[in-house]
Amino acid sequence: MKYVYYGLGILILSLGISLTIKSGLGTSPFDALLVGLSEEVGLTVGSWEVLISVILLIFNSILTRKKPILLGLITAFITGISIDLWMFSFHHVMEPNMWLSELTCFGIGLVFIGLGTAMYLLTKFASTPIDHLTLIIRDIFKKTILFSRTLVYVLFLLLALIFKGPIGIGTLLTVCFGGMILHFFMYFIKR
């Protein structure tokens, strides 16, 4: 059952990421970095998910002074492929072009990101390096997921600005509410 929740969590997470990208309102800072790199340098958003995850895997290993957790790359790889598949399937089907449809698309995506992340994190199978970084920061500072996720978002926001990622009202909403939504679903699903 653990692997069912893991797989379902990854699918829901990647659907949420794709919906926020398609909304055109801005994405999470991490996803804005991926989209910015995709548009500025090339490759797909999913490919950048994997490449940035490799860098974060090494960074996390240095922070914890432990061997890299290579299972996280499996999650990043599956997430990257899933994002690309969702984006491909949405390519001509869904183009929100009115403010209300963009906001709805973004809102559903943000909730799915929180739900999917909580589902697969609670399986304790293999967190992505960015989610592992969130947990490392939580443990280092002895704070909540809300605090650590927000700090991670701020760091990636700066990088997304450098690489001209899609920063918008959605990015601000993600920074303000993404950690809170994840915290809620972590608590709700754990019960």
TrEMBL record:
Pfam families: DUF6198. It comes from the Bacteria. Keywords: Membrane, Transmembrane, Transmembrane helix. InterPro entries: YczE/YyaS-like. The chain crosses the membrane at residues 5-25, 45-63, 70-88, 100-123, 144-163, 169-189. The keyword S-adenosyl-L-methionine does not apply. The keyword Membrane applies. This is YitT family protein. It comes from Bacillus changyiensis.
